[in-house]
Design goal:
Radius of gyration: 25 Å
Number of domains: 2
Shape: globular
Order of helices and strands: HHHHHHHHHHHHHHHHHHHHHEEHEHEE
Helix content: 55-70%
Distance between the termini: 43 Å
Structural class: alpha/beta
Number of strands: 5
Length: 547
């Protein structure tokens, strides 16, 4: 099974590299299509959309911080991008893009997040174009561009390690070219659309389901089903795209099987489908005012309830897209992932909300100021939640300082790893113990990395040794067992303190921000982070000398 998984991962990498190279041709065509459509519009549409792109770029690149979204998984994703052959259970689409860019950028998860910020800005014109063609209303499309540029949920996601950011870039580029094909019947945009959509599919496992459904709904919403049904070349191109995605599909299937055996992924059951309607309400970022502005949720509902026919088919398609994009994640979803995985659903809901806002804007001019105030006011609480201080961000800041204190000569850096949880750790074994080894190992630094178990079993003082006591020394996934009392210091870190002499190099007492996204931490008001020089502990009274 492991050998088959390696073969499929390598085959998926080869396909993605091919598609990534082809995207250098198809993405410029998508932007050219966008420019042509914008040029045909009047009433300052280009200026509004251009202003939204510039404003969105300023918020992402100059104002909003780079923020790890996935509770330390960003370290793992960066490692997988640097060593592309290892593959990710998500798929290798986004990792291939990062891997190519790491040839020019520092080997650092901040580089990955910076790439996402830029890609998020590049996605804004494509979003405006999709909204323009689907809704057929330049006012609604310009409002959609502004909303996607400034809504905190989208800014937070773009400025993070979320691997759905490149996926959405390719998805929206593919939908722009798909619309060109539907409108004009040309084969080149059809091939480009399928290439970009295949690349987006290879970036996330759920896209195997979502991408075909989104294309089908977009086709229905644009009332172009007849041309699709009659085009034999299209069916041949679809078959070719399906063949190209076979390695990704098998890679995902094997990854799901592996995760299921480890207990990291719940199995499918009839009860999950029965509970789906309730989960769509309780675990839905679009319906949570703490994550997504409630004013936009109301405007999206208003757009669906509009009495005029207008773009009714497109509005219904957008609502179904948002619902499908939300439902696809309910198989394995916790609150820590809501602000990331429901971004596609929120994106389609926002385009729908823009249509509702444009409708009210045109008919009730006296309410325009009130509308703007309501949307802005509803967005403020979401910003306060999405950028709430966390222990993960505290560690990110301290980690940078600590690594700067390490010597430039050869040394050993000891940090807690997954193996240090032990074989009978229960739910604590699911704790994200990934560490950014790439920041200090060759060729960046001269550190030899070691887990606590490695060091305890075979201490070696031939070179200076340092122990990093970070937040993971206090973190253990609790699976609803209740918050532990005190600092929750983990056994491996406690053993380092007990069995060795730890001389502080850098130490800091920090505020314990508690369990913002995952149930990890105890209830102690503060936690001590540190980088320590590791030395043998002198023998106590009546003890022999250490070996």
């Amino acid at each position: 099974m492991a050998a088959l998984g390696s073969v499929m991962s390598n085959a998926a990498c080869a396909v993605v590299v091919l598609l990534l190279g082809a995207s250098l041709l198809w993405l410029p065509r998508a932007y050219l299509r966008a420019w042509r459509l914008w040029s045909a519009e009047r009433d300052g549409f280009r200026w509004v959309v251009g202003g939204a792109v510039v404003g969105g770029a300023a918020l992402r690149l100059l104002v909003a911080p780079l923020w790890i979204a996935t509770v330390y998984i960003g370290y793992l994703l960066t490692e997988q991008a640097l060593d592309l052959a290892g593959g990710s259970h998500y798929g290798v689409g986004s990792q291939a893009l990062y891997h190519a860019l790491f040839a020019f950028l520092p080997h650092d998860h901040r580089s990955l997040m910076w790439v996402n910020s830029v890609v998020g800005v590049l996605t804004l014109p494509l979003t405006a174009t999709v909204a323009l063609r689907w809704l057929g209303d330049r006012r609604a499309a310009s409002i959609a561009a502004v909303l996607v540029a400034v809504v905190p949920l989208f800014i937070r996601n773009d400025n993070s390690d979320a691997n759905n950011v490149p996926c959405l870039w390719w998805l929206l580029g593919g939908l722009v070219l798909w619309e060109e094909y539907l409108a004009e019947g040309r084969r080149l945009p059809m091939i480009g659309a399928l290439g970009l959509l295949a690349l987006a599919t290879a970036a996330r496992p759920e896209m195997l389901l979502l991408a075909p459904l989104l294309v089908a709904l977009a086709t229905a919403g644009l009332e172009s089903r007849g041309r699709v049904a009659r085009d034999r070349a299209l069916w041949g191109a679809l078959a070719a795209a399906a063949v190209l995605l076979v390695p990704h599909a098998l890679h995902v299937a094997l990854a799901v099987d592996t995760l299921g055996e480890r207990g990291s992924l719940p199995g499918l059951s009839l009860s999950r489908f029965v509970d789906l309607p309730a989960a769509m309400v309780t675990m839905n970022a679009v319906l949570r005012p703490a994550l997504y502005p409630v004013a936009l949720t109301a405007l999206a509902a208003l757009a669906l309830a509009r009495p005029d026919a207008g773009s009714r088919r497109a509005r219904l398609a957008l609502a179904l897209m948002a619902a499908v994009a939300c439902a696809a994640y309910q198989v394995d979803l916790c609150r820590a992932n809501l602000a990331r995985v429901h971004v596609p659903a929120a994106l389609f809901a926002t385009i729908l909300a823009a249509d509702g806002l444009a409708w009210v804007w045109a008919r009730f001019r006296s309410t325009r100021v009130l509308l703007c105030a309501a949307v802005a006011g509803a967005a403020i609480p979401t910003a306060l939640v999405l950028w709430r201080p966390t222990n993960e961000q505290t560690e990110e800041r301290f980690l940078r300082r600590a690594l700067g204190e390490l010597p430039t000569s050869r040394h050993t850096l000891i940090r807690q790893g997954r193996v240090d949880r032990g074989g009978d750790a229960g739910s604590a074994a699911s704790t994200h113990d990934h560490f950014p080894d790439y920041l200090v190992r060759p060729p960046v630094g001269r550190a030899t990395m070691a887990t606590v178990r490695d060091w305890v079993d075979h201490p070696d003082y031939g070179a200076p040794a340092f122990f990093y006591q970070g937040m993971r020394c206090y973190a253990a996934f609790q699976a609803g067992a209740g918050r532990p009392r005190g600092d929750n210091l983990q056994p491996a870190c406690a053993r380092m303190r007990r069995d060795f002499r730890l001389d502080p190099v850098l130490e800091e007492e920090v505020v314990n921000h508690g369990n913002v996204w995952l149930d990890y931490y105890g209830d102690a008001p503060t936690l001590r982070l540190g980088l320590y020089r590791v030395l043998p502990r002198p023998p106590g009274p009546g003890e022999g000398r250490p070996p």
